[in-house]
Specification:
7-stranded mixed β-sheet, 214 residues, alpha+beta
């Protein structure tokens, strides 16, 4: 991405307010990523938006322009939503919401893959978050990448062999710090991952982390 969305949130000017849509189950209250069962992702960015010179309307337009440019580059379609596409083309990223509420700005974007998330938010993830990778796959497809020590969501030790028996479970690998919520239940994690709830974990910057859910 040419400019981080997070950076954009703190460089706009003037005053305006965008109405907030009804909260989706895929939205988070903090910046993070929601992983769906179909292996697509919903990224949420939440930042302070409490200065009189910030302009939420310009923020929305800028995010739309960035998404159009990205989709144009990847699939030669300049659109921000599937409804804007006449042909049956799967857009790499789509805009779900841009909202300002309670002195915070929230941007919600759906990504077709972890690679699209990294590529679109490159300056944010690689720079500020100190990571380069977010992969999502089935355990059966990513079993060979598993390494390190693992525990269940309750903290009980488990072997890689035990994990790979569940080939239809979903496997997440990430090497930067973030909040991750899954559509289902967290089953196994690397020992450097913190379980916040049955469907939510946090990871740390600069370390590879695995999360397996179903």
């Amino acid at each position: 991405m040419r400019k981080s969305i997070i950076f954009a949130m703190v460089t706009l000017m003037a005053v305006s307010v965008i109405g907030c849509k009804k909260d989706s189950k895929y939205d988070l209250d903090v910046s993070g990523v929601y992983i769906k069962n179909d292996l697509s992702l919903v990224g949420t960015f939440v930042e302070p938006f409490n200065k009189s010179y910030y302009n939420a309307t310009e923020l929305k337009l800028m995010v739309e322009d960035e998404i159009k440019a990205y989709n144009k580059e990847k699939v030669n379609v300049e659109a921000v939503s599937e409804k804007d596409v006449k042909d049956s083309i799967n857009l790499p990223i789509t805009l779900d919401d841009v909202a300002v509420k309670d002195k915070s700005a929230k941007v919600v974007i759906t990504y077709d893959s972890g690679e699209d998330y990294i590529s679109f938010n490159e300056s944010y993830v690689i720079g500020e978050k100190q990571g380069t990778t977010l992969n999502v796959s089935l355990v059966s497809d990513g079993a060979n990448s598993l390494e390190g020590e693992f525990v269940t969501e309750k903290g009980e030790s488990v072997t890689i062999q035990d994990i790979t028996k569940n080939g239809d479970y979903k496997l997440i690998y990430v090497d930067f710090g973030t909040t991750i919520k899954v559509e289902g239940k967290v089953c196994y994690i690397s020992t450097n991952v913190t379980v916040e709830d049955k469907d939510t974990v946090t990871t740390v910057d600069g370390e590879g982390s695995f999360i397996i859910f179903n």
